[in-house]
Amino acid sequence: MNALPADEYALLQARSDAYQPEGTGPLVGERQSTQAIAAEYAQADDVLVHKTTALPRRYPSYRTIQGDGNCGWRALGFGYIETLVGLADRNRLLEEQTRLRSLNNLLNRVGYQSHLYEDFADATFDLLNELAALVPSPEAQTTLLRRFNDSSISSAIIMHLRLLTAAWMKTHASAYQPWITDGRDVLQYCSAHIEPYQVEIEHLGMNALIDVLIKPARMAVEVLYLDRSPGEEVNTHRFEAAHPDPTALYPDPPTLHLLYRPGHYDLLYRHVVDRSATAATDRQMDALSHQVATQVHLVPVLSHGHFQPVPIAASIDMSLASIIPGLSTVVPGPGPGPGSTAAEAASILPYEMASSAHAALAMEYPPTSPLSPVTPTALFPSPTSLRFSLSLAGGGGGGGPGGGADSFRPSRYELEPDVHASTAQSRHYQTPSFRNSHFNPAHFRSSEFQPEQWRPEIDATTTRRSRD
């Protein structure tokens, strides 16, 4: 990067300092991409090109503020109220309204007459009260932007902020007098730079406005200086309430970001991590853990003697199960018809639920002869929410499992005597997530855990078969 000669650098800086942007466009613009700033400086010198190119990585959007001599006051005033609206806390807005009302005593103390400032102050109080009634609705943000683009309301709020800043400086003169280097005192400085309308805010006035408006509201301000100073990124200066250490008085406070170009301020917005989706998922998982409990019971041979009637919830909302990776309780396809029996409905339930239904049916109708498996021809549709109601006691035809309308799908482990217990034990009807859960009886942390035992007659047969 080629450095400019000292005299040329000084000339460019002087022109930048004297530049006054035209007062065109809205008083406060809509949010837009900071790529527009990079495009604006694409033909500038290398320092500004590098800084504006790096800006969108951290600050993807910004608002333009009209450069009419009040841009610094308007940017900080709008950003302050916008941050309050973003907190979506009605009490916080009313709390700030009460605090600002109490500062009327400060205005009276320095000699401002109430009939001179009360109209300006009322514009601020009325806006805060209006927004408090709207939050957390998006209409609050729309109303704020509309009010600040109303020149009468915007000008009144800015004048209120100017008077508060001047009163604060006059009552804390010892803190600001050392920074006035032209021989004037604080009263003279306020008369020339703070109180007159359309006089742009200077660094000292910005400090005082932050001291009276931002820091007591438990907020912070970062000002990013876009100038020709060396560096690849804009220089940042942070203002926040601090202890004498100095450590921040409020950890992680809401922060306003201002972009300063010589003689002008705009509002910047950082990347925001939206945790609402994560919070919603956490709430769904909590609801699921209280609503659905999955249980698996393993037995060596599935016979009628092991079955006990298991009640099934009359209404279970399975929509939340869709957010668990690897768990799916429904498959696409047509659902059961309106005349389906309880056993036919049970035949198309997931395995754990179908087993419970078969168990209850087996206790109601003890089998007298083997039956051929009935292949289900109807499957559930694939909605995100599965609600079902299954009656196991009543039923239409009365024929039992041997005949009639009430049929069921038996398990092969009931009907085929040559199916060994080890085959049934090796069947795993579980999700990938449940496989590693301590609720799984095969997991060593389960209260029902039993280690595998060596059985010579089975292991020898398996070994010989694998060698063949």
Notes on the structure:
The protein is of the alpha+beta class. The protein is 44% helix and 6% strand. It has 19 helices and 6 strands. The chain has helices spanning 6-18, 35-40, 46-58, 71-86, 90-102, 104-109, 114-132, 139-148, 151-171, 173-176, 186-194, 203-214, 276-291, 342-347, 351-364, 412-415, 421-426, 432-435, 456-467, and strands at residues 32-33, 61-63, 220-225, 235-240, 255-261, 264-269. A 6-stranded mixed sheet has the order 1-2-6-5-3-4. Strand 5 and strand 6 form a beta hairpin. The protein is extended.
Write the SSE topology:
Elements (H helix, E strand, L loop, with lengths): L5 H13 L13 E2 L1 H6 L5 H13 L2 E3 L7 H16 L3 H13 L1 H6 L4 H19 L6 H10 L2 H21 L1 H4 L9 H9 L8 H12 L5 E6 L9 E6 L14 E7 L2 E6 L6 H16 L50 H6 L3 H14 L47 H4 L5 H6 L5 H4 L20 H12 L1
Parallel strand pairs: 3-5
Antiparallel strand pairs: 1-2, 2-6, 3-4, 5-6
Offer a concise description of the structure.
This protein has 19 helices and six strands.
